[in-house]
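Researcher: Next sequence.
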Amino acid sequence: MNSRRIAGCVLAVGLSTLWAGAADAQWILLARKVIGRVESMQQKPKPGVPTYDVASVLLDAPPATVYQTVLRMVTSHPENRITQRDDVSFNLEVSRGEFTVGLHVVALQDKVSQLIVASVVPPGQPSPTSYAVQHILQICAQMNVSCHRAESGQ
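Model: Next structure:
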């Protein structure tokens, strides 16, 4: 009876390991398909109400490298003012004029990161999302990482 129980446990562990490996392989294939694709989303404007804009990209680069590149680019422009900075969690808040943009680098793996840029647009003001997307593309270029805007419908 003990040998059957041991054999069952070994089989269960073996199957779960294979399943986990297959899940990792699917994740890698999916990630390779979306790495470098800059996605953006905007809330439809309503009179007198601030709107939210978000842009993000997966990068094939370590999170610390992405964060340091973002920090270098932000500080290289004197019109930018860092209002919040957390180097441990890779969070940055930057103001330029009346716009404030939050930047966050998320570690997905040791060498895969997600860069998220979010902002609140005051009522009646143009959206800085295209500005954020442009800067994401500039960050990619600085890091020699291939990035492109997502096509609608993808």
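Model: Residues 18 and 24 are 10 Å apart (CA to CA). Residues 7-22 have pLDDT under 50 and may be disordered.
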